[in-house]
Amino acid sequence: MRNISYFCALSLMAALTLTGCGQEEKVQLDVISYNIRQGVANDGTNSWEYRRPATADMLQDKHPDIFGVQEAYDFQIDYITENLPEYASIGVGREDGKKSGEHMSIFYNTASIKMLKWDTFWLSETPEQPSLGWDAACRRTATWALLEKEGHRFYYVNTHLDHVGKEAQKNGLALIVDRIADINPEGYPMVLTGDFNVTPDDPVLDDLETKMLSARDNAEETDHLGTFNGWGNSDSVIDYIWYSGFASCDRFETVRTQYGNIPYISDHYPVHATLTF
């Protein structure tokens, strides 16, 4: 009887060992880019006060590890952190480098993500101070962070390119690409999200395409739906998730789910990707 039990135990251990071979659990990173639409805009029934519950519902539903917002005012950031206390945020107002104006903030789930360092720079000839760049209509910024998930370090950059100035778009994105190279000499995986205000065929993206991959174009499961809805008056792709250094992008989606019977979560749909280290 003792010998039978001994051999049964050995057989079970062997089976467990074989089952585990080559099946190391993947570490994935869930990312969202979301132009939240500035909360001070008078959008009638689409104003922030009416649609803000949809933002909380969407984030609770998708529950990303990390997400970048564009156009967010400080009270919109406060609303998210009050309703989703598991998230912390970084970022500054583009007008004064403190709280004034739109924030290109990064939110991260403190249960899964560790923040290591971060900063914000302006898309201009004087990137270290609040400033207007080239032919831009507005001050534009990019916020970056070095973070870690389950031992995997990665950089995240979140931005919003100008909606008018073509030089500002081109030079602003070039500045971001150069900064990425400067801050990431170790070659850690990188994520870049934002509202770029250009469609996928725009030459503004040519240089970026040689350095990073579009989640929309490279995900195993994807869509090519419009992201700017203009409250139902548009259907163009101008919001992006780019990445480099990851093993794969498993999924990309344009989040068009309607939350709480609110017609539009914003004048942009969020975009959502799952990346694997």
Short description:
The chain has helices spanning 2-20, 48-62, 74-83, 166-183, 206-209, 215-218; strands spanning 28-35, 66-70, 87-90, 106-109, 114-122, 141-149, 152-160, 190-195, 213-214, 239-244, 248-254, 271-276. It is an alpha+beta fold and 277 residues long. It has a six-stranded mixed beta sheet.
Please explain how this structure is put together.
The chain is an alpha+beta fold and 277 residues long. The chain has a single domain (25-276), classed as Deoxyribonuclease I, Chain A (4-Layer Sandwich), CATH 3.60.10.10. Helix content is 25%, strand content 27%. It has six helices and twelve strands. The strands form two sheets. A six-stranded mixed sheet has the order 3-4-2-1-12-11. A six-stranded mixed sheet has the order 5-6-7-8-10-9. The protein is globular. Residues 1-19 have low confidence and may be disordered.
Total number of distinct structural domains: 1
Global mean pLDDT: 93
Structural class based on helices, strands and sheet pairing: alpha+beta
DSSP summary, beta strand count: 12
Spatial ordering of strands, largest sheet: 3-4-2-1-12-11
Principal-axis shape: globular
Q: What's the helical proportion of residues? A: 25-40%
Strand content: 25-35%
Classified in CATH, the superfamily is Endonuclease/exonuclease/phosphatase
Element-level helix/strand string: HEHEHEEEEEHEHEHEEE
The span between the termini is 48 Å
Count of helix runs: 6
